[in-house]
DNA sequence: CGGTATCCCAGGCGATACTG
DNA sequence: CAGTATCGCCTGGGATACCG
């Protein structure tokens, strides 16, 4: 138990980013939140494929990291609003650069995949 | 089997990015490759925690996406070099922005975590 | 050196049901 | 509406062994 599998690098910042962004939904949620504050189920509809459990989990993680804030309004059926914190906003600027890259390079990536698959389809 | 769990959004670019970057190692490898071309085992040592299998897998994925190129040199024990493609380079510029963000905001994130954990340690 | 194959576990994530 | 609890699948990924 020497934490062998845990000794990436002493303080690798990329690792830090990965630990909170490298999952199926975090970035997507952050990106969604850039527009405005969103309520739980609304967010759930917007992201679609996500389940309540995972949305809840991811939101909690993001909240814990200080990227998202949660506001509860004591209305009748209870309203909860999620929004980016200032820190979260600074991150989403970078995230949007990533999204922008994807938009600009989707075709190149797909072409590369097709070429790769065509070159070695059997293996 | 209507691919219910697969209908995120028609062509969500963030999803595209996530599908290739949202794993434990891809970003780290990309970041390492920014410096220069690296051989398999050398890369393995640099990244450390990673296993051959996963390094191989991730490299293949990256190669398939046209982000990394693989050069084989018919030397005695065989030398294989991995380097970023021009496309890969354009991505790592964004990736480095992410890394930079992490470097600048690690403290804020850790502070937020401490505050969060301190506020609700029992649950 | 640079992989591939196999085994296996942890946990991410989805589906469903239930609560306040 | 906004979650939490439970269950179970599937896959990411680590360990080990083997191959060219």
What's the layout of helices and strands?
The structure is a homodimer of 123-residue chains.
Chain A: H1 13-21, H2 26-33, E1 38-39, H3 40-47, H4 52-64, E2 68-73, E3 79-84, H5 86-119
Antiparallel strand pairs in A: 1-3, 2-3
Chain A binds a DNA duplex (20 and 20 nucleotides) through residues 4-5, 23-25, 39-41, 44, 49-57, 72, 75-80.
Descriptive labels:
5 helices, Arc Repressor Mutant, subunit A, 11% strand, 59% helix, DNA-binding, three-stranded antiparallel beta sheet, 123 residues, mainly alpha, homodimer
In short:
Two copies of one chain form a homodimer. Chain A has helices at 13-21, 26-33, 40-47, 52-64, 86-119, and strands at residues 38-39, 68-73, 79-84. With 123 residues, chain A is mainly alpha-helical.
Give a verbal description of the structure.
Two copies of one chain form a homodimer. By secondary structure, the first copy, chain A, is mainly alpha-helical. Chain A has one domain (14-118): Winged helix-like DNA-binding domain superfamily/Winged helix DNA-binding domain (Arc Repressor Mutant, subunit A, Orthogonal Bundle), CATH 1.10.10.10. The first copy, chain A, has five helices and three strands, in the order H-H-E-H-H-E-E-H. The longest helix of chain A has 34 residues, at 86-119. Chain A is elongated, with a radius of gyration of 18 Å. At the A-B interface, helix 1, helix 2 and helix 5 of A face helix 1, helix 2 and helix 5 of B. Chain A binds a DNA duplex (20 and 20 nucleotides) through residues 4-5, 23-25, 39-41, 44, 49-57, 72, 75-80.
């Amino acid at each position: 138990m020497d934490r062998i599998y845990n000794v990436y690098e002493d303080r690798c910042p990329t690792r830090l980013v990965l630990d909170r962004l490298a999952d199926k939904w975090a970035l997507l949620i952050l990106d969604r939140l850039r527009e405005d504050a969103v309520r739980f189920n609304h967010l759930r509809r917007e992201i679609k494929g996500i389940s309540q459990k995972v949305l809840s989990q991811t939101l909690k993680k993001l909240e814990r990291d200080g990227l998202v804030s949660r506001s509860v309004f004591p209305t009748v059926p209870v309203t909860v609003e999620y929004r980016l914190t200032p820190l979260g906003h600074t991150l989403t600027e970078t995230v949007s650069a990533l999204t922008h890259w994807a938009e600009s390079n989707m075709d190149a990536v797909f072409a590369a995949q097709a070429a790769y698959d065509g070159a070695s389809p059997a293996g």
